[in-house]
Amino acid sequence: MTDVLRRGRASLAFGFLVQGVAFALLVTRIPAIQDRYGVSDALLPAFLAAVPILAGVGSVSTERLVRRVPPSRLLRWSQPVVLLALLGVGAGERMIELAVALAAFGLAVGMPDASMNMLGVSLQRSYGRSIMLSFHAAYSLGGIVGASLAWAGAHWDLALWVSYLPVVAVLLPAVLVGSRWYVDDRGAASAGEEKNGEGQVVVFKWLLPLCLVMTVAYIGDSTVSNWSAKYLQDVLGSSEQLATVPYNVYMVTTLLGRAIGDFGVRRFGAVAVVRGGALVAAGGFAVVAGAPGAWVGMLGFTLLGLGLCVLVPQTFAAAGRLFPGASDAAVARLNIFNYVGFLIGSPLVGALGDLWSYRGAMLVPMVLVLVTLVYARSFAPQPDRYGGGHERPRTADVGRGSNGL
């Protein structure tokens, strides 16, 4: 069973990596997508908002589907759809084709996002120690790869479909092969554990602080994802080629932070790590807002990566600890606020940029991320709260799989 868990961890990390590649290839080429389809600045926020809305629908569907279908199976068949939809974004010519491709991307991306984190939470429970940040580190690595490929496409002035086709051709079969080793919560759990929400109720008021932190984290992340290229090019006067770099810088520092984050959680605790991340992220937004040029702006995005990187993985992990008997449902509901953050962040920065200034708009997520400090204690070990009048399983039972890990 130890080898099974290790293979499951490696294959799931690869799934996170592929998701990072796909998302980065989409968001870092927004200016090129806008030019290809003739999307106006006024219409662009609507297109950007449609993706998280539909992804939220996909995440809600995942919560319902995992009652009958294992999360591993949902991940196995939904991730290829994400890759094919990305190719559709690059291959279309008319705005209606862009709308259809983005709709497919949004609906499909919600299922892998939710199911990957479900599998990650269950594997962390089986391992008995913090490993959640390592999965999100793989996502960051995928973002670096995707942003680097986007830079190459912009540098060589390649058509979008030319940039996307080789990536999809390589990753699609690799994802299908790697999915053979996913480890489901149902397979790793001991027979005495109550799984998939049976016997435990996800009480929203207990989940709400984590939902707020998730929303704030993704407001910050969506600001970088959707506006960093445009900010560097239009506000700080960089070239189109250089404008693809901030997201790459952000993902590099996110990768570094997440690579060592699990050790920080084990050493200092989740509360201290979350508080430190919020303070560093707020400093990053302040630097971006006041940057006199592109390279100082890069420094700000570097700080943002180091600060924001710990918030999302720890939020999923905290939800899994809070509802060990209904972790799939808790993760799926929490994941919706991922898209709420994107839905708020993208239009908010765009509207403030048009009405006020993009520099001023960067101060709003700075203030919001500081709100995380208020809820940091929600990441501490919680008192036992087991819904439905049942006694919560012993800690030793919750922390191990059938192999006794």
Automatic annotation (TrEMBL):
It is a multi-pass membrane protein. It comes from Streptomyces dubilierae. It comes from the Bacteria. Residues 387-397 have a biased composition (Basic and acidic residues). This is MFS transporter. InterPro entries: MFS, MFS_dom, MFS_trans_sf, MFS_Transporter. Its main location: membrane. Residues 385-405 are annotated as: Disordered. Keywords: Membrane, Transmembrane, Transmembrane helix. It holds the Pfam family MFS_1. It is found in: Cell membrane. Residues 207-405 form the Major facilitator superfamily (MFS) profile domain. The chain crosses the membrane at residues 12-30, 42-62, 74-92, 98-119, 131-152, 158-183, 203-221, 241-261, 268-289, 295-319, 331-350, 356-376.
